[in-house]
């Protein structure tokens, strides 16, 4: 299994003024931002889907995924298409036989402020992920790479874009909440003898 903490080539990008990188092994292409088709009842971090050569590819806003607000669409906003293999999807594919391709992996778009460049990092450049202090969940980070006077956060893209986690969050988003009143569209009016 190819891990992000290995020496190799990484695609660097910015998000909310911070520099991140992911292993180029997962990247299939980089697109200029294009309008997205919004899918109702999805978690907030799924901004929509794009048509990529006839396939609907979900686009994830990393800023929202990291709990840092929405990515503001600008001139350099890009969508990085990554291919994720999530072994836990095998059980989901058994439930829906038409989704067997998903068990082999899934293309996902990642919305970022801008793509910077591809860099080559040696094992000497990479330090272990910090237990705290990076501003995002520790399991999303596979390492830190020294770069000039700063660090580049190396993302563990398989954790950041865990498809099974997103499916669970999507299912939760689609469940009605019990605490909403009928006026908010969250329930049925009480029947005879109910209050």
UniProtKB/TrEMBL annotation:
Entries under InterPro entries matching the protein: CheW (IPR039315), CheW-like_dom_sf (IPR036061), CheW-lke_dom (IPR002545)
Domain CheW-like: 7-166
Gene3D superfamilies named among the record's database cross-references: CheA-289, Domain 4, SH3 Domains
Residue ranges, annotated region (Disordered): 173-195
Pfam families xref list: CheW
Annotated Gly residues bias: 184-195
PANTHER family found in the cross-reference section: CHEMOTAXIS SENSOR HISTIDINE KINASE-RELATED (PTHR22617), CHEMOTAXIS SIGNAL TRANSDUCTION SYSTEM ADAPTOR PROTEIN CHEW (PTHR22617:SF41)
The protein's name: Chemotaxis protein CheW
Organism listed in the record: Paractinoplanes hotanensis
Organism phylogeny: Bacteria, Bacillati, Actinomycetota, Actinomycetes, Micromonosporales
């Amino acid at each position: 299994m190819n891990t992000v903490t290995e020496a190799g080539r990484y695609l660097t990008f910015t998000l909310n003024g911070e520099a991140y990188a992911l292993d180029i092994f997962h990247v299939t292409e980089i697109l200029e931002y294009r309008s997205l088709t919004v899918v109702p009842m999805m978690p907030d971090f799924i901004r929509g889907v794009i048509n990529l050569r006839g396939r609907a590819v979900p686009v994830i806003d990393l800023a929202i995924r990291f709990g840092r607000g929405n990515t503001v669409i600008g001139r350099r906003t890009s969508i990085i298409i990554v291919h994720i293999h999530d072994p836990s999807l095998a059980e989901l594919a058994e439930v829906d036989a038409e989704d067997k391709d998903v068990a082999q992996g899934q293309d996902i778009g990642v919305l970022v402020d801008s793509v910077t460049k591809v860099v080559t990092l040696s094992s000497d450049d990479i330090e272990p992920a910090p237990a705290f202090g990076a501003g995002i969940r520790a399991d999303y980070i596979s390492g830190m790479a020294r770069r000039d006077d700063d660090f580049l956060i190396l993302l563990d893209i398989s954790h950041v874009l865990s498809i099974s986690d997103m499916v669970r969050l999507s299912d939760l988003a689609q469940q009605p909440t019990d605490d909403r009143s009928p006026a908010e569209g969250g329930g049925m009016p009480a029947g005879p003898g109910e209050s």
